[in-house]
Design brief:
Elements (H helix, E strand, L loop, with lengths): L6 H6 L12 H12 L6 E2 H8 L3 H13 L3 E3 L4 E4 L1 H11 L3 H17 L2 E8 L2 E8 L14 E2 L5 H8 L3 H11 L12 H14 L2 E4 L6 E9 L5 E10 L5 H4 L3 H10 L6
Antiparallel strand pairs: 1-3, 2-3, 4-5, 4-9, 5-6, 7-8, 8-9
Length: about 270
């Protein structure tokens, strides 16, 4: 593309199974493909089947077909990972993708303004997947990486997404996944989570105060699609002993500007 106009330019001028989604053959195949290609591959058949919410016998049959067609690869001992066709597809999607360039450009602007690590994450099934990350200048960094999947209830991005659900949708999700802790600060009680999500709706942003990773404090502002539904968030990640909770709140306006710039970009 010839050039990207960013918000700066304009201003200056567990249970991870998805059984409820694995109804038809297409859903099962896609869920299995996603589970097998998740970070940490190769994954054993039982783990892939459980993560995708597909019975093991059906999973084995579908996985064998995905291997035969080149979308997955098998290591010969019952474990699976991405194959050449899915790697080629990923390369075609991301290479020169205008949406990715826009997201990265906007995050680079935000990162320069606030001097911290910034990310964009979106909901994928029952988790948050990080799409873009721009690391800050501090030598101490969080453990996040592009492609990593994170829980909904322990992350600031995830809370933004959950705040966009109605009570029935939230109850269904928690009934499926539970609220397992990631740290001693994680919200594991549904009543407490509801109260936190009400605050997110009222304030328009979410906080993760060492709830997903000890020593890491995050702020996130929702990203919406063209219909106005929350699909993810812009996230500011800080090291707790270097940045206070009060200082982190200073970046809400800048994060909101970036989220507004990405409105409708992903659907």
């Amino acid at each position: 593309m010839a050039g990207i106009e960013t918000s700066e330019d304009s201003q200056t001028g567990d249970r991870r199974g998805r059984s409820s989604l694995a109804g038809n053959a297409t859903d099962k195949a896609l869920n299995l493909l996603e589970a097998a290609a998740a970070p940490g591959y190769p994954h054993r058949l039982g783990d892939v089947a459980a993560s995708a919410g597909v019975p093991k016998a059906s999973a084995h049959r579908i996985l064998q077909n995905l291997v035969a067609t080149g979308f997955l690869a098998s290591d010969g001992s019952g474990s699976y990972g991405p194959g050449p066709r899915i790697r080629a597809l990923a390369a075609r999607i991301t290479q020169g993708c205008e949406e990715d360039q826009v997201m990265r450009a906007e995050l680079e602007v935000l990162g320069r303004r606030i001097g911290h690590t910034v990310q964009v994450g979106v909901r994928t099934g029952d988790a948050i997947t990080l799409l873009v990350k721009v690391s800050g200048p501090n030598p101490v960094q969080d453990s996040s990486r592009v492609g990593m999947q994170l829980p909904l209830h322990t992350t600031a991005i995830g809370k933004c997404v959950l705040a966009g659900l109605d009570d029935e949708q939230l109850d269904s999700l928690v009934g499926r996944l539970g609220l397992p802790p990631r740290t001693e600060n994680s919200l594991t009680d549904l009543t407490e989570l509801r109260a936190a999500l009400a605050t997110v709706r009222e304030q328009g942003f979410a906080l993760d105060d060492e709830e997903n990773e000890l020593g890491v404090r995050c702020l996130a502002v929702p990203i919406r699609d063209t219909k106005g539904s929350v699909i993810g968030a812009v996230n500011v990640s800080t090291i707790a002993f270097l940045e206070t909770r009060e200082a982190l709140l200073n970046w809400v306006g800048f994060a909101r500007t970036t989220a507004d710039a990405l409105h409708g970009l992903l659907g």
